[in-house]
Amino acid sequence: MTDTDRRSFLTRSAGALAGLSILPSDIFAFDFRSAGPRVAIIGAGRQGRAIMGELGKTEGVEIVALCDVDERRLQAGLRRTSNAQGFGSVVELLEGAGALDAVFIATPTHTHRQVAQACIAAGVNVYCEAPMEATIEDAAALARAARSSGAIFQVGLDARSNPVYQLARSFFRSDAVRDLVSVHAQHHRKTSWRTPASDPAREKALNWVLDPQVSLGLPGEWGTHQFDTVCWFTGRYPVSVRGTGSIRLHNDGRELADTIQCSLLFDRGEAMSYNATLANSYGGRFETLFGTNAAIKLAGTHAWMFKEADAPTQGWEVYANRQQFHNDEGITLIAGATKLAEQGKLQEGVGLPHPPLYYALGDFLKSVTEGAEVVCTADEGYRSTVVGICAARAVRTGEEVTIDDSLLSLG
Amino acid sequence: MIVRLAAEAMATRFELVLSGTDELFLRAAGEEALEIIRDQHARLSVFDRGSLVSRINALAASRPVEVDRELWELLDLCARIWRQSGGAFDPAVGSLMARWGFRDSVPGKPRTPAPAGFEAVELDRTTRTIRFLDPRVSLDFGAIAKGFALDLARRSLCQLGVERALLHGGTSSAIAIGTPDDLPAWTIEIPSRRSGVTPLRAQLADSALSISSPSGRVVNRAGQAVGHIMDPRTGRPTSGVSVSAVSCASAAEADAWSTALIVCSGRPASMRAASATLAQEGTWIIEPEEQHVFVPAPSCKGD
What we know:
CATH architecture of the largest domain in chain A: 2-Layer Sandwich
CATH class of the domain at 52-141 in chain B: Mainly Alpha
CATH superfamily of the largest domain in chain A: Dihydrodipicolinate Reductase, domain 2
Oligomer: heterodimer
Number of helices of chain A: 14
Strand content of chain A: 15-25%
Strand order of the largest sheet of chain B: 1-2-6-7-10-15-18-17-16
Number of helices of chain B: 6
Structural class of chain B: alpha+beta
Helix content of chain B: 25-40%
Largest sheet of chain A: 10 strands, mixed
Radius of gyration of chain B: 19 Å
Order of helices and strands of chain A: HEHEHEHEHEHEHEHHHEEEEEEEEHHHEH
Largest interface: A-B, 28 and 30 residues
Distance between the termini of chain A: 32 Å
Number of strands of chain B: 18
Number of domains of chain A: 2
CATH topology of the domain at 52-141 in chain B: T-fold
Shape of chain B: globular
């Protein structure tokens, strides 16, 4: 892109930002009251509860059914709904919940294929949490089933719906960071990652995420989301991945590492380093893309651009809100910045009012009710899932895993 | 075996002390309880533009807003205590808090009439909806949210089979499950504000405790420190009583009553007086029966 192209793009994008405006009056951005979609949530664990919470803030959505095999979780989940009916199995739900416009699948990763295919077969639109599945074979089979069905199928890689990430990506793709040097991402959270079971017989099933037979561990369960962000930004997928892992804190008999490091190599030689741990929470979750003109840091509800001293100044920067990070000054990336600046309300736009999940669910329901384009298709979800599975394999074996083009293609 | 866990939420630190034999189970159960507390922060915070409460505040003046069963439980409790306390506890003090500078907004004029409170809130039990009859109404669960979160965390722990635990939020709201090993109760010391006075000791066993004080949070207003507990009936911050402590089965209920007692400067008329006795040093009145209410000495309105 030439300098003139970049300038004109930035002028256009600054104007276009108004379209992403997060003004106080439309903080609750989605309104489905005219369509009134009837939806069900399958899985009432952590992610299922998070989905319920965000749908509860979304106008016009009727949660008519909730499904979980664990009675305690089912009852706790039902309290988060107005009038939903509870079901102990997907079969019962599909038979007993009446007509459904959509289901949200938040079951253990290795059950996604079975659950999602049952829903697709029943003609219900599906939002499926990521990673799509625990093996490449199952992920591919699910993606093919989704592709060949008439149902709308969105994979829960929510960065793609995140208004702040969308804005950051427009800058990234406009060449504002210039040539990509490297990427660093991390997810730090201090937690045992265990689910408590009141019934010892349920212990293993509830703690599937710690079971090496079915779980992708940190690189797959958490990493897939962050690998997807980077692939979505760059439009490219890594060609290989190396990894290591160890148990640093939770020496409680588990086999899966509670701390991992991965190095993903891209085709032009750029590397992405990725750390995840259950032993320390410092820094939380973020992705930083380093370029020769600037770095962009993405952190869920916030994003910043850190410019190099010799990078050209852009017109939009006069509006910019800035934040100091030790010796570095970050320009806060604010969706709707131009309009907010005109109203003198730029500060109110710093940070998203909702978690990214809210926007992903809203986007999916727009596809269901208005025919909007699916934000993350089965094909896109499949490719990022493959990266996550390969990273998990690299950590488990300690060997470099090649991510061949043929693996990424569904044919 | 004791497992301690902590998390930051609702602008304070929540801490759980769990006692039992299985460390892995206790830790997992405690982490789930902390998640419930964080979740309540996300739902009930008025400082979070995307919270459930912010949504109600934004919409309920224009139309009824349906709420889930869990939030209805809280609204129902608020309505009951608002009624019983004669409006001394009011969960719709959001506009008052803003007027006195306890929000990000610029403080308003304190001498104008008090904005509408919970009397302008309509709860429809049949549709489980909430509606504001006055656009100035603004819900603010600040006085009760910590207790409600602790109640839910306690419920989760009990359902999982945890038999002994103490949970607190910022040390001002606490709830106990069972008792510690070999002891009759969890003991919490409530220091007196008078020097030389022996601190009061609350004994908790399957019960909750809440302590309120206007000096818990203050802002500077025209050179004067203003406490954060509002008297919804006058539209002004309370200034009479320094500390109140209430113990009962529910932490949310204890939170609401400890606020009401500060506002009333003592026991409201609706509260039983028969069991009230003066604590030593003249600082506290204790009602050991039923609700175990501790209130400051100076006034016993309604006797």
